[in-house]
């Protein structure tokens, strides 16, 4: 569970609730079902127009990755790759097959299996990089859906406001209804702004960060596998892989983590 996402959402809504209460407002005045239907319904309708049904149906699974994700420690990964390098130098590349089978990472397993099968190093790199590129593309689809909802929600909020104003202007012969009608008309703009700035855009940003972290992990795996295949000294393998980390993280053994399992369209 990514507690920062939960804390951010709870804190954001709590601050808005505090603003309502401190201003003497009543929560019931901020609840309007037609406004919810226009803002949320219109946003999702636009999502269906822009993206295929198969992608939209995976939206709950995609959103889940903003809250829950597997955790890889870069230093632990580097230690694992160095251990593979040591074993390969002692016992040969074939000895890695059994070791890789115990690792819960399909990308790493595939790379090790390619090496064990005697695949040409350049072909190994090409295969893994192609898979990594398509992984990034799938991630971008998930991120794009949330960015798109973040961009359209305020627009549908404004549409709801215009609808409310049109209805209000048709009732100007009843002055007592103008105030409440204006309040309801503005609620849809409020809903659109909240969804855009507190939910959709921040989740898209979190997914983008998760994607970057996962790509980093897989780049470390690719470089480590190729170094092992080349028979490089385990110490050299370690130094090469630590180059992927920031200087502050290179001497921290297993305490800095990178979150993976990030949003994808299909993976």
Class derived from helix and strand content: mainly alpha
User: What's the overall geometry?
Assistant: elongated
Low-confidence stretches: 252-267
Strand residue percentage: under 5%
Instruction: Report the radius of gyration as a whole number of Å.
Output: 26 Å
Structure report:
The chain has 267 residues and is an all-alpha fold. It has two domains: 1-31; 34-259, no CATH class. The protein has ten helices and two strands. It has a two-stranded antiparallel sheet. The longest helix is centred in the last third of the chain and has 52 residues, at 178-229. The chain is elongated and about 90 Å long.
Overview in brief:
The chain is mostly helical and 267 residues long. 72% of the residues lie in helices and 1% in strands.
What are the salient characteristics of this protein?
2 domains; mainly alpha; 267 residues; two-stranded antiparallel ribbon
SSE order and pairing:
Elements: H1 3-22, H2 33-50, H3 53-56, H4 59-64, E1 71-72, H5 74-91, H6 96-101, H7 106-116, H8 121-169, H9 178-229, H10 234-242, E2 258-259
Antiparallel strand pairs: 1-2
Helix pairs in contact: 1-9, 2-8, 2-9, 5-9, 5-10, 7-9, 8-9, 9-10
């Amino acid at each position: 569970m990514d507690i920062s996402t939960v804390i951010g959402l709870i804190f954001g809504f709590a601050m808005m609730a505090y603003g309502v209460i401190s201003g003497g407002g009543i929560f019931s005045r901020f609840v309007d079902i037609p406004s919810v239907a226009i803002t949320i319904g219109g946003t999702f309708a636009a999502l269906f127009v822009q993206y295929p049904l198969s992608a939209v149906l995976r939206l709950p699974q995609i959103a889940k990755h903003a809250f829950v994700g597997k955790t890889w420690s870069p230093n632990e990964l580097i230690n694992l790759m160095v251990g593979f390098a040591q074993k390969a130098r002692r016992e040969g590349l074939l000895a890695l097959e059994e070791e890789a089978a115990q690792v819960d990472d399909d990308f790493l397993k595939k790379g090790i299996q390619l090496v064990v099968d005697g695949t040409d190093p350049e072909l190994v790199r090409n295969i893994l990089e192609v898979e990594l590129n398509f992984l990034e593309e799938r991630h971008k689809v998930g991120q794009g859906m949330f960015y798109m909802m973040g961009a359209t929600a305020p627009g549908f909020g404004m549409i709801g406001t215009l609808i409310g104003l049109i209805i209000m202007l048709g009732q100007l012969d009843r002055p007592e209804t103008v105030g409440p009608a204006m309040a309801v008309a503005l609620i849809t703009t409020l809903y659109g702004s909240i969804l855009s700035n507190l939910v959709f855009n921040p989740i898209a940003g979190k997914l983008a960060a998760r994607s970057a972290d996962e790509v980093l992990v897989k780049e470390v795996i690719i470089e480590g596998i190729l170094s092992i295949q080349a028979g490089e000294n385990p110490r050299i393998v370690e130094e090469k892989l630590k180059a992927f980390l920031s200087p502050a993280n290179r001497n921290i053994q297993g305490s800095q983590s990178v979150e993976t399992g990030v949003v994808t369209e299909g993976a």
